[in-house]
Amino acid sequence: MKVVVSFIAAVIFLLAYLLSSCNNIRRNNSHRTVPISNIEKGKVLAANYCQSCHLLPDPLLVDSKTWEKGILPNMGPRLGIFRFNKKNYPSSKYDPGLSSNFYPSKPVLTDEEWGYIIDYYTSASPDSISARQSRPYPIKKTLSQFIPLTPQFNYPEPATSCVKIDASDTLHPLNTSDAIKQMIYRFNKNIVLTDSIKTNGPVVNIEIQNHEWLATNIGILIPDNGKYGEANYFKKLHNGQMQIDSNPLFNRLQRPVQIITADLNNDNKQDYIICEFGYLEGALVWMENTGDGKFARHILRQFPGAIKAYVQDYNHDGLLDIWALFAQGEEGVFLFTNLGHGQFSQEEVLRFPSINGSSYFELADFNKDGYPDIVYTCGDNADFSTVLKPFHGVYIYLNDGKNHFEKKYFFPINGCYKAIARDFDHDGDLDIATIAYFADYEHQPEEGFIYLENKGNYNFLPYSLPAAETGRWLTMDAGDFDGDGKTDLILGNFSKAPSFIKSKNDWKKGPPFIILKNTGRNN
User: Fold this and answer.
1) 51-104 per-position pLDDT tens digit
2) What is the pTM of this model?
3) Which residues contact 18 (CB under 8 A, 6 or more apart)?
4) How far apart are CA 387 and CA 392, in angstroms?
5) Across the strands, what pairs with 197?
6) 100 Cβ contact list (under 8 Å, min separation 6)
7) What are the residues whose beta carbons fall under 8 Å from the beta carbon of 400, sequence distance 6 or more?
8) What are the φ/ψ torsions at residue 53 (nearest 5 degrees)?
9) Which H helix or E strand runs over 146?
10) Which residue in 45, 236, 400, 436 could disulfide with 211, CB within 3.0 to 4.6 Å?
11) Which DSSP helix (H) or strand (E) runs through 10?
């Protein structure tokens, strides 16, 4: 009888233990158990609060440690939580460059509720994510489509922030900007330095016009909420050299990264679209030319992260429309349709998670149906989740003719930063050249530059070349620099890297840029 009682007691104890265990889940990063009820509450709270500003991120996108130590402490202040578990969260609460009402005046949820959100993300996320990406083909280092050309002009620790091929200027077809030295350098077809200009700050983009340049001066490179950016004109002198206009076209811009000239209201006066990337605050704006050198500022979207824009009359109504990529918070591609009289409608045609690290996009017609498709890259890791991500790379989204886009192609590239779609081999279809500023340099340095040769039916073969590992490429441009009818590439080396970047190459001793001359040969 005692044996039976003991057996029954053991069974009851085991059942109680199993039932108790079912109410807990093992925490990935610290191996502590968390009640399932907490996780379920956190999931609901995250849906209510986190996606009020952006697409709700899936916990599976990054590892649990990154959620707990990186992303969530930086998101807490957005909800009015500046301290949790006796630790202060990073914030810009006292930054004079930030609007006084940016942060909530009081927490929008309790510490207990915030703890539930932390429990959800740290428990539902993996312990780690693989840095190795699964590719349909290995990257071959036998690229014959291009041969690398290196300039004799060199200096230590290049910080090339802009490269531009100007095929219309036969004397100076190559142009680069160094953000630290605050200089623009110009080169001839033999890649010999022929002109240099001192700038007012870090130039990150140049719009080339007939006899003028419009340069975008970001003001300050590191994330900042100050308004130190400018738009500067450079005029071409009789000897072919360039000279900066002492009076900026615009100043007090919030970290602008691109400025486009366009007549948006059909009044025969040039207006301007400005991508003010900013940091915690920013905007996509257009400056209406009201005459006599005066402009009216109009906000298209009052959010940070505007990184690239295109002007195009997509609906053929005689009015210029705007496509723009936002790479902060609510990451996505937005279409601003010109309604006339200075009015625009807004539609988000592609939406991405807030930790995607969106970096660039282009409009290109891949299926030749007359509608713009989208080539998109994500790979920015200079944020709160500095881990290699398997979803980073280059994507193609096809347009159904009504501006609804469907993913057609993805090629994984760690830290992908830019993609240029051109028919590089002149076979009638679009190939893709890519750079990756946050590549897996330690194990896969060839990711820094990849050429995707289009073999038809959205089948691309990847190539790289050893010379592409000599720099850390932040910027890239395409054009026929030597006038031989073939599209070449220029890659700009921004050699400074944060401490978490590991590499066998010393980019600080690398060239400020390299030219990839198109040979016209097939791989």
Assistant:
1) 777 888 889 988 899 999 999 999 999 999 999 998 999 999 899 989 989 999
2) 0.91
3) none
4) 11
5) 184
6) none
7) 371, 406
8) -110, -25
9) strand 146-149
10) 236
11) helix 2-22
